[in-house]
Write a sequence for this structure.
């Protein structure tokens, strides 16, 4: 066939055309938010903004970062909520555009990165175009945005660049490639979602192993050895680039429910880590999007609920299969192995043979939850493989190539047809425990009805049968839709094989089909219905009448640091960030709570006898007010809002934020501490529970004792107390004990902070009038900023120097006169 117009274009022009198409994809798909007065503000974004309010407000008013957040969970490191990068790097470029064209500001980098990666590996621009669209339009990227998982989305946008840098090191192992890999790794980690970086690194590890085995078989160790050395150098430099924030994050991890990396039994609980495991049959959604009902409430798969499926598209999957069958390259084998392994990991508790082994023995595997997240990484590998498949379909004109293409598309089409004809091999159209849940709901509404009533059973069975019929119709419709797209793509490839259309036309047509397919499904999960008429997340945070009442009480009491609040406005206070926007809350919303707080939540907060918040638990954390729908034991109503009907209940027995305890009792563990706190007659004001004896015995407090504590100033990172005592006494603060950064001084002299009453801070104060200062200044933050700054200067400076030197040599070479 004669050369077409595409082939007559220069390589640079072809690049420009493809990049222009990617810009159309980026701004076209997200046009509803980029070109409107509406915003994409997911629920998690709103929750983050509520948690970050005190930190952002303090930094705006003082110009200094707040490293401690007093408004959530009784207090926690603020750098786990909002911790801006102190050292600028290349990721500052899309960040500058974020306020203007989010999420296209980062999405375009995802598309360009994937395009360049596949072009670098195949030298085929149209293959790169297809892979970029296939990865960029996969459903879960949009779903993450709608949910407000912005850090996950940003990390995914930078991930193709990390893979591209890795490929560059393998092909050209030298110092410059190592520096570029370090920069890509640093940017990926600074995006703030280590779980995604971990998945990408796992893929790169598989690729490295494939290259290593290939080198061993050939007996050519030098290239892979050099690449390994430069990758190791780049990895070290990349980690140094992110010393801030990760030194502080790693330090915090030791004190959380996720545990220390090297501690025995550390990590998440198995059931918690394996929550949201992908069902085996549910893998059908990779090629037929709503095969399990799409998003909740129509979803009927094994997960508790979901916002949508992981859909890569039947055409993309068929092209990936073609690449696996015909392309004999290490990278294809590595990506194929990576795809298979990651799909098995996504099954989580449904495939314990592999996942329990990894959970118990592989580093960091037990630090992450939601196994289905592995599928977003598998979507990337499948998209890259599809690029190889499209390249192969256009280049391999042999009879074997034709058979492979027809087999790939025919195999996927046959699979879809079989699932359409025999859906029972994938699903029974009934959600796990659905019948029992519906029965329980009916009985809760009609308690007089017997569970054995035949009419009830008949009604339940009729409902379930109706659901199964509706679900079967959805399932078959999705199978036919995907089958249609596969057959259309196969027809286009057949036209090319028969010489009816040129290669570039075939590739463009298949790429357009993929875009139409994925765009159509993506619009189900991202459209105008998910947007809000607000520019800032805080506009979505409600302020109720009881909030205004409590803020007035706070002002009357002297400001921050006087009392805390527990809000039961929407169930568990420990999954509700809204109150933390307004006042110092015992609750909040965070995925990695301090272990001390988690134990308080699990073992102390709820009174097992009443099911209500425990009175001693409230007293312990200086909870002066509780927001609830009705009165609670040990409290008295002081306000009821007309707007909400909610009560503000005052707890008159709440401990002061700081007080002297005259007696000390030593306990061996938290279980004994909780038992003593709940024992009849025990008074937290009189006795402090410690875990180790003090060097100085505190004097008892009696009617003749003179001891006072006044809050001189209270800020997130510094608490100043004016105290006076007529004898050595233990000063107890209703502040969360966190040894990694909090330091105390008495009149300028260092003082030790000890743990009291399970989770509070205490300082031994000598006789006299003195000033006690507690300051949060973690060395992990200071050292991290210094290391990141030095590493950034080294890596970026050396990269610019090497690029400048290469440009100078090229210029000198071009200016040399011919011999």
């Amino acid at each position: 066939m004669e050369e077409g117009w595409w082939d007559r274009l220069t390589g640079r022009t072809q690049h420009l055309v493809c990049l222009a198409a990617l810009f159309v994809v980026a701004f076209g798909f997200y046009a509803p938010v980029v070109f409107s007065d509406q915003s994409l503000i997911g629920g998690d974004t709103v929750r983050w903004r509520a948690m970050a309010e005190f930190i952002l407000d303090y930094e705006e008013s003082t110009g200094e970062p707040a490293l401690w957040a007093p408004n959530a969970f009784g207090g926690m490191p603020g750098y786990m909520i909002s911790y801006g990068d102190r050292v600028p790097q290349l990721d500052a470029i899309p960040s500058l555009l974020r306020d203007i064209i989010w999420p296209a500001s980062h999405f375009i980098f995802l598309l360009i990165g994937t395009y360049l990666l596949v072009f670098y590996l195949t030298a085929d621009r149209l293959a790169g175009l297809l892979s970029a669209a296939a990865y960029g339009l996969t459903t879960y990227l949009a779903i993450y945005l709608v949910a407000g998982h912005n850090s996950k989305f940003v990390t995914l946008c930078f991930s193709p660049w990390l893979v591209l840098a890795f490929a560059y090191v393998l092909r050209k192992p030298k110092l410059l490639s190592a520096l570029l890999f370090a920069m890509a790794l640093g940017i990926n980690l600074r995006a703030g979602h280590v779980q995604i970086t971990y998945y990408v690194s796992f893929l790169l590890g598989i690729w490295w192993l494939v290259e290593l085995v290939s080198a061993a078989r050939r007996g050519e160790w030098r290239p892979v050895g050099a690449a390994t050395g430069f990758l190791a150098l780049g990895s070290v430099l990349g980690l140094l680039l992110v010393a801030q924030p990760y030194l502080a994050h790693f330090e915090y991890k030791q004190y959380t429910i996720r545990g220390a990396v090297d501690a025995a039994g550390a990590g998440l609980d198995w059931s918690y880590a394996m929550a949201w495991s992908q069902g085996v049959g549910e893998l059908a959604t990779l090629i037929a999007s709503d095969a399990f009902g799409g998003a909740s409430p129509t979803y009927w798969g094994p997960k508790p609920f979901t916002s949508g499926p992981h859909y890569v598209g039947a055409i993309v999957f068929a092209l990936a299969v073609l690449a696996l069958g015909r392309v004999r390259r290490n990278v294809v084998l590595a990506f194929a192995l990576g795809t298979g392994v990651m799909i098995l990991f996504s099954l989580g508790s449904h495939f314990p043979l592999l996942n329990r082994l990894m959970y118990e023995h592989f580093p960091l595997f037990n630090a992450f939850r939601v196994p289905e997240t592995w599928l977003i990484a598998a979507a990337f590998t499948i998209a890259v493989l599809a690029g190889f498949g499209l390249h192969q379909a256009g280049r391999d004109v042999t009879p074997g190539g034709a058979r492979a293409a027809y087999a790939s598309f025919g195999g996927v089409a046959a699979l879809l047809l079989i699932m359409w004809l025999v859906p029972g091999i994938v699903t029974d159209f009934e959600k796990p425990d659905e019948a029992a849940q519906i029965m329980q709901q009916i009985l809760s509404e009609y308690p007089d009805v017997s569970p054995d009533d035949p009419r009830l059973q008949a009604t339940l069975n009729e409902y379930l049968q109706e659901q199964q019929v509706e679900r079967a119709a959805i399932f078959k419709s999705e199978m036919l839709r995907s089958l249609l797209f596969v057959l259309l793509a196969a027809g286009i490839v057949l036209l090319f094989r028969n010489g009816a259309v040129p290669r570039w036309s075939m590739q463009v047509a298949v790429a357009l089909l993929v875009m139409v397919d994925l765009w159509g499904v993506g619009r189900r999960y991202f459209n105008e219905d998910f947007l809000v008429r607000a520019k800032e997340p805080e506009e979505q945070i409600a302020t109720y009448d009881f909030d205004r009442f409590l803020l007035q009480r706070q002002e009357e009491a002297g400001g921050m640091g006087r009392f805390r609040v527990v809000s039961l406005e929407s169930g568990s206070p420990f999954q509700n960030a809204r109150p933390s926007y307004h006042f110092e809350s015992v609750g909040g919303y965070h995925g990695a709570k301090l272990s001390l707080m988690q134990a308080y939540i699990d073992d102390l907060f709820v009174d097992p006898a009443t099911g209500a918040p425990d009175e001693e638990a409230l007293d312990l954390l200086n909870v002066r007010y509780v927001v609830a729908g009705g009165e609670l034991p040990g409290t008295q109503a002081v306000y009821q809002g007309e707007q909400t009907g909610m009560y503000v209940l005052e707890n008159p027995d709440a401990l002061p934020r700081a007080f002297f305890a005259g007696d000390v009792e030593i306990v061996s563990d938290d279980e004994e501490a909780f038992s003593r706190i709940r024992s009849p007659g025990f008074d937290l004001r009189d006795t402090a529970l410690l875990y180790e004896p003090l060097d100085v015995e505190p004097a008892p407090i009696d009617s003749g004792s003179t001891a006072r504590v006044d809050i001189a100033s209270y800020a997130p990172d510094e608490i100043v107390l004016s105290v006076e005592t007529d004898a050595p006494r233990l000063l107890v603060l209703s502040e969360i004990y966190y040894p990694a950064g909090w330091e105390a001084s008495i009149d300028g002299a260092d003082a030790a902070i000890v743990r009291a009453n399970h989770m509070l801070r205490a300082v031994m104060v000598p006789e006299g009038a003195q000033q006690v200062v507690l300051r949060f200044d973690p060395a992990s933050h200071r050292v991290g900023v210094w290391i990141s700054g030095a590493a950034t200067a080294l890596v970026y400076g050396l990269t610019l120097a090497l690029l400048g030197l290469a440009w100078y040599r090229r210029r000198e070479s071009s200016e040399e006169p011919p011999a």
User: Anything to note?
Assistant: Residues 277-533 form one domain.
